[in-house]
Amino acid sequence: MEAADSMKIAVILIVLLPLVGFITTLLFGKRMGGKAHIVPVALVTVTAALAVYAFGWVFQHQEEPFVWDAFSWIVAGRYHASWGFQVDTLTGIMLLVVGIIGMLTHYYSIGYMRGDGGYYRFFAYLNLFMFAMYMLILADNFLLLFLGWEGVGLCSYLLIGFWFDRKSASQAGKKAFLVNRVGDFGFTLGMFLVLVTTGTLQFAGVFDKAETIGAGTLLWICLLLFTGAVGKSAQFPLHVWLPDAMEGPTPVSALIHAATMVNAGVYMVARAYPLFAQSETAMLVVMVVGTFTAIFAACIAITQNDIKKVIAYSTISSLGFMFMALGAGAWVAGIFYLFVHGFFKGLLFLCSGSVIHAMGGEQDMRKMGGLRTRIPVTFWTMLIAAVALVGIFPLSGFWAKDEILGGAFAHGYYVVWLVGIVTAFLTAVFAFRMMFMTFWGESRADAEVQAHIHESPKVMTVPLVLLAIPAAAVGAVVGWPPEAGWIHRFLDPVFFAVEHEEFEWLGTGGALMAVSLAVALLGVYLAYVLYLRRRELPERLAARVPWAYEASLRKMYMDDIYEVVPVRSTIAFSRFLWTGFDVHVIDGAVNGIARLWGWFGDRLRPLQTGRVHNYAFGILAGALALVVIVGWVWGI
Amino acid sequence: MSWQDQIGFPVLSVITFLPLAGVVLILVIDLLRRPAARLGADGAVEGAVRRQTWWPTTYKVISLATTLAAFALTVWVLFVFDKSTSQLQFVEDVMWVRRFNIHYSLGIDGIAALMLLLTTLLGFIVIIGSWHYIKDREMGFFVSLLLLQTGMTGVFCATDLVLFYVFWEAMLVPMYFIIGVWGGPRKIYAAIKFVLFTLVGSLLMLVAIVAVVWYVNGQGAGLTFDIRALSDVVYPYHLQFWAFLAFFLAFAIKVPMFPLHTWLPDAHVEAPTAGSVILAGVLLKMGAYGMLRFCLPFFPDAAVDFVPLVAGLSVVAIIYGAAVSLVQKDLKKLIAYSSVSHMGFVTAGIFAAIAVADNAAGMEGAVLVMFNHGVLTGALFLMVGYLYERTHTRQIAEMSMLATPLPVFAGFFLFFTLGSLGLPGLNGFVGEFLSLLGLFEYSHALAAIGALGIILAACYLLWMYQRTMFNDRGEAGVMPAVSLRDISPREIVSLLPLVVLAVWIGVYPNTFLDFLHTPVQYILQQMGPSIESARDGAVAHLIEATKGLF
Amino acid sequence: MPGGDFHPFFFVVIAAWILVCGLGVVLFRNIIYSAVSMVFCFLGVAFAYALLNAELVAIVQILIYVGATSVVILFAIMLTEVQQSYGQLFHRQAIFAAPLAVAAAVVMTVMVVSTELADVGDTSLNLSVHALSSLLFNRYVFPFELVSLVLLAAMIGAIVLARRQGEKR
Amino acid sequence: MSPLDWWLLLAMLLFCIGAFGVLARRNTIVVIMSLELMLNAVNIALVAIAQFRAGSQGAGVLFSLFVITLAAAEVTVGLGIVIANYRAKRTVENDHFDEMKG
C-alpha cells in the first residue's frame, strides 16, 4: 500500500492546494495588485501535475480503484457520511480534463483579466472553483459529491456575477444558482431515497446493493438524481441559465461553462451507472431529454448573433449529446465525448475570448468579420476547435460523436440516431456560420475598433496553442480504433457490464461514419453558401418563416415562459401570503382579539366615573353581596 | 454527575450569574462615581458626571469581561463534559422552598450544553457588536443585556420546573426593555406584542405544570418539581393530551411555529441589533429546547399522536416563511421571516424523529439546526445592524451596489448568506440535511415539500444579496455610496467566531453531534413504547382521541 | 357576669346618645353642627368603652378622638372656609345608599342574632393597663412599631399634601 | 339576646349610619367624619367581643387601640388631601373631583 500512501498525499494536496490559494489570495491578493495571480497560478500548476500523477497511478492500477476514507464527516443516528476519496479510471479522465484545462485557463486569465479592478478576486474564485471541482470528482460518496457540486455552483455564481456592477451579470449569476438549486432539489431527495433505501451514501456501498433495490424505488432514485444532472448540465428545461452565464469573463465560460462544471451532471450519471443501468425507464428518460436538448439548443444556436451565446448553445447541445449517449447505453462514448469536448469547447471559448479581446469587448458577430489575417493564432486555433466540434475526420470530435451516433443506432434507437444526425448537421452550420462571420469577409467594425484590433499577448495565445493540440489529436489517440480504442479498455472497470459491438469498417459502422462525416461537410458547405457567398439568403429565409426565426432568436421563448410561470406567480403568491394572509388574517386575528377586549373595556368605561362615592358604594354593595352569597352557599 | 466530581466548583451557577455580578459591579461603581464627580466639580454635578468619559468604556469592559468569562467557562465545561452518558452533568442541588420541595437545581445534558455554548457565545458577541450602537441611556442597555443573559442561561441549565419557569419569565423583562426602550419607531407595539404572545404561552404552561405536579402528588409520590423525576412518570392519556397541548402552545409561540409567528417580524424589526441577535439566536431556541425537554419525554403518547399535525405545520412554516421572506422590503423583516422558515426544520426534525422508530438523525439534525440558526441568523442580524449604522436605512430598495464601497463587508455578508441558504461545507447544510432526512423517513411527500423551502431560501437570500450588494437596476439607476467606510476591525472581531463556527460545523460537525447522541437516545428511549405504538392513520387516531376527551 | 355587669338602662341611654349623635353627623346641613355632633358621638363611644370595663380604650378614645381628631377636623373646616353646605346635601346616590345601608343593617342583624356567641364566653379577663402594656411591648411589639412608622409617614404625607404649591423652594 | 348581641347591634347600627354618610354626603369633610363613625363602630364591636369572650388575650382591646391610631393617621392624610384639593378647586364637594374618570 505504499503507492496508496503517496496517492493519499496527492489527493489531499489536489484538494487543499487550490483552497489554500483561494484563502491566501482572498486575504492578501489585494495588496499584491497586478501580481495577485502568482500564488494561485503556481498552486494550480502544481495541482495539475498532481492530477496527472494521480491519473498515472490509476493507469497502473486500473482494476482496483483507490478508495480512502479520510475522516468522518457527519455521524447522526444510524447514518454516516465521510470525507472519503475515490480515484478510479473515470475519475482519472476527469482529473485530466479538469487539471489541464484548469491550469491553461489560469494562465490565459493572466492576460485576459489584466488591469481589471477585481484581478485578485478573480483568481481567488477560480481557485475556489478548482477546489470544488476536484472535490466533486474525487468524492467517494454522494454527499461529498454534492458538496463539490454546490461548491462549483457557488463559484459559477460568483464568477458569472464577477462584474456585479452590471445588472445583467448579477442577474445571470443569481439565475444560474437558482436554476441549479431546482436541480439540486431533486438531487437532495434522490440522496435521501438512496440513504433510506440502502443505508449509506458511499458509492461502493450503494452500488453493491443496487440489485436489491425495488424497481419503483430505483426509478425514483434515478429520476431524482437525473434532475440534479439536468440542472447542472443545463439540459432542457433547466438549460436557461447557461446562455446567460456568458455574462461572466470568458475564461470562466471556457473553464466552468464548457469544460468542467457543466460536465458534472454527465459525470454523476455515469458515476451512478450501476443504478441507471438497471432501470430502463430511467435510461429512456435520460436519452430523450438529452436528444431533445441537443436538437433544441442547436436550433437556437443557429440564429444567435453573440459569439459567446452561439458557443453556449452549442455546449448545451453537446451536453445533450452526452446524455443521449448515456441513455442509449453507449456509456463509454458519452465519457469519450465529454473528454474531447472539454478540450475543443474550452478552446473555442478561449479563442472567442481572444476575439473579444481583440475587438475591444465587442461580442456581436455582425460587427466582426475579416479577422483571419489580423489575429492569425486565434484564427487557426479556433478553426481547429470548430472543425473538432463539427466532427470532421480526423479531429477529436469526429471519433467521439461518431461513437455516440453509432451507439444509438446499434442499440436500435433509429429516431435518436436521425435526430443526432440532424443535430450534427445544424452544429456544422452554426459553428461555421460563426467562423465565417467572424474571420472571413470584410470587417464590419467601425474605424476606431478597426485600428485597435491586435493579437492577444503570449500568455493568452500559448495556452490556446497548447489546448489546440489535444483538441485536434486526443480523439484519435484514445479513440482509435473505433469501439475498441484505449478509452474503452480504460473505462471497462467502471462500466463493467457494457458490451462493445465489433466495429466493421465495411459494415454498418463504416457506413454510419461516412454518413455523419458527409452531413458535417454538407453543413459546413451550407454555412459557406449562406454566410460567405450569398449573404442575402439568410435574411430572405428568415422572412419566409418569420415565426421560426423569431422563436429561435428568442430562445424558444423559454425565458419568457419562466418569467411568467414560476417567477411572477411565486412572487405574486408570496405577496398575497404576506399582505393578504399574514398581515390581515393572522395578525388580523391577533389584533382583532385585542380590539375585542378594547371594545369590551370601552363599554365598561362609564363604570369608572372618577367619583369616589360611587366607588365606595360599589365596595359596600360588593361586600354585602359577598356576605350574602357566602352565607347562602354555606347555608347559614 | 455532580459538579464536585467534574470541575471542582459550581460552574453552572457561576456561568449563569456572572453577568448578574457584572450588573451589580456596574451599578455599584455608578453609585460611587457620582459623589466623586461632585467633589471634583463646582456645583454642576450632572455635567461633571457626564464628563466622566472613562465611564462608558468601563461598563462596556465590565460587560465584555463577564460575558467573555462566562463563555470561557462554558468552553471549559464542554471540554470536561462526558459525552458518553445521558445523565445530567455538573449538577447542583440546593433546597429552595422546603414547603413545596422546590429545589434550586442546575444541570445540563448534551443538548443543553450546546445551547449554553450558543448563549454565552452570542452574549459576548452582541456586546462587541453594540459597542457604539446605542446613543441613549447606554448603561441601561448593557445592564439589560447582561440580565437577559443570566435569564437565558438559567433556562437552559435549570432542572427544576419552578426554577425553569422563573428564569423563563425573568428573561422576558430585560427583553421587553431592550425592545421597548432602545427599539425603532413602533417599539412599544412590538414590545407589548412580544410580551403578550409569550405570556399567553407561559401561563398555559404554568397551568400544565401545576396539573402535572398535582397529579404526581396525588399518586402518592409526594411533591416534586424535578424535571427528570417528573418525566419518568407515566401520565394518563387525558392529562397527557391537555398538558401536552398547553406546553406545546407555549413553546410553539416561542419557536415560533406557523401560525403563531406574527410577533416575530415586529419584534425583530423594532428591536435594536443586539436584541434581534439574541432574539433569533437564543430565544427562539428555547421553544424547541422546551419541546425536547418537556413535550416529548413527559407526554410521549400525546406527542406521537400530534406528529402529523406538527410535522404538517412545520412544513407549512418552512414554505410560508420562505415565501413571505421573498417579498419583504425590509432587511430585518426578511431575515425574521426566514427564521420562521428555518425553525420549521427544527420542529419538523424533532417530531419526525418520534414518528418512526430509530430515526435519531432527524432529532440530532434539528438540534444542530437550532445551533446553526443561532450562528448564522445571529450573524446576519449583526451585519444588518452594521449596515444600518452606515446607511441609516434597512429598506432594500434604498440600497444597491454596496459591494463597491464595502467589499470586505460584502464578503462576510455573502459568507453568512450562503451558510443560511444551506451551502454544503458550511454549517447550515448539515443540520437541514439531517432534519430533512428525518422528515423524509417519516413522510416522503412532506420532505419533498420541505425541500422546496431550500430552493426558496436560495431565492430570497440571493435576491436580497443582489439587490443590496450588487447592481439590479441597470446602469443608470445606481449611485454607489462612496463615502461609506468598510467594516471595522471591531466588527470583524465580532464576526470571526461565527465564521469559524460556521466552517467548523460545516466541515466537521461531529464535534457537536457527539454531544447529541446520548441525550437524543435518552429522549427516544423514553418515547420508546409510544413510538412502537405509533400507528398508521395517525390523524384519524388524533381525532378519535380528541373526541374521547369530551 | 362576663365583661362586667350589663346595665340595660345605661346601655340604652348610651346607645341612644351614640346613635342620635351619629345621625346628627350625617344629617346636619351645617358642617359645624356635624362636627360638634361627632365630638359628642365620640364622647358617647368613650362612655360605652367605660361601660365595657375597657378603661384604657375609653381614655385613649377621649385623648385621641375627642382631643386630637376633632380638632384636626375643625381646623380643616376652618381652612376650607365652607361652614355651610349650599345646594344639595346628598348625592343622587343617596336614594340607593339608604336602602343599601338598611339592607346592610338587616343582614348584619341576622348575622348577629343567628350567631350564638355569648354562650362561649365564661370569664371576665378584665385586663389591667399593666397587662395590656406588657402584651403590647412583647407580643405585639412589631405591629406597634409598624403603626408608629405609619403614623410618621402619615404626618409627613399630610405636611406635603397640605403645603401650598408656592411654598416650594 | 345576650348582652354581647346588644353591643354588636349598637356597633352595627352606628356602622350603617356612618356608611350612609360616606355614600350619601357630598361634603368630603363630612364623609371623613362618617368614616370615623364607622371605625368607631368597629372598635365598639372589637372591645365588646374582647370583654365578653375569653381567650382573646386582650387582642381585641389592643386591636382597637391600633385602629384608633391608624384612624388618626388616616384623618390627617385624608384632610390633607381635602385641603390640597380645596386649594385647587375651591370646593370640598366630592362630585367635583372626577379627574380619574375612565
Task: Write the topology of this structure.
The complex is a heterotetramer of chains A (636), B (550), C (169) and D (102).
Chain A: H1 2-32, H2 38-60, E1 66-76, E2 79-87, H3 89-112, H4 119-138, H5 142-160, H6 167-198, H7 203-208, H8 215-232, H9 241-244, H10 250-259, H11 264-271, H12 273-276, H13 280-301, H14 307-328, H15 331-358, H16 376-390, H17 396-410, H18 414-439, H19 447-452, H20 458-479, H21 486-491, H22 508-533, H23 536-544, H24 546-553, H25 558-604, H26 612-633
Antiparallel strand pairs in A: 1-2
Helix pairs in contact in A: 1-2, 1-4, 2-3, 3-4, 3-10, 3-15, 3-20, 4-5, 5-6, 5-10, 6-8, 8-11, 8-13, 10-15, 13-14, 13-18, 14-15, 14-17, 14-18, 15-16, 15-17, 15-20, 16-18, 16-20, 17-18, 17-20, 17-22, 18-22, 23-24
Chain C: H1 8-27, H2 31-51, H3 55-80, H4 94-114, H5 129-138, H6 141-162
Helix pairs in contact in C: 1-2, 2-3
Chain D: H1 3-24, H2 28-52, H3 59-89
Largest sheet of chain C: none
The CATH architecture name of chain D reads Orthogonal Bundle
Largest interface (CB < 8 Å): C-D, 90 and 74 residues
- CATH topology of the largest domain in chain C, what is it called? Four Helix Bundle (Hemerythrin (Met), subunit A)
Structure description:
The complex is a heterotetramer of chains A (636), B (550), C (169) and D (102). With 636 residues, chain A is mainly alpha-helical. Chain A has helices spanning 2-32, 38-60, 89-112, 119-138, 142-160, 167-198, 203-208, 215-232, 241-244, 250-259, 264-271, 273-276, 280-301, 307-328, 331-358, 376-390, 396-410, 414-439, 447-452, 458-479, 486-491, 508-533, 536-544, 546-553, 558-604, 612-633, and strands at residues 66-76, 79-87. With 550 residues, chain B is an all-alpha fold. Chain B contains 22 helices and two strands. In chain B, helix 17 runs antiparallel to helix 19. Chain C is an all-alpha fold and 169 residues long. Chain C folds into two domains: 1-90, Up-down Bundle (Four Helix Bundle (Hemerythrin (Met), subunit A)), CATH 1.20.120.1200; 125-169. Chains C and D meet through helix 1, helix 2, helix 3, helix 4 and helix 5 of C and helix 1, helix 2 and helix 3 of D.
TL;DR?
The complex is a heterotetramer of chains A (636), B (550), C (169) and D (102). Chain B has 550 residues and is mainly α. Chain B is built from 22 helices and 2 strands.
Features:
heterotetramer; B: 550 residues; mainly alpha; two-stranded antiparallel ribbon; 22 helices; 3% strand; globular; C: 169 residues; Four Helix Bundle (Hemerythrin (Met), subunit A); 2 domains; 6 helices; 71% helix
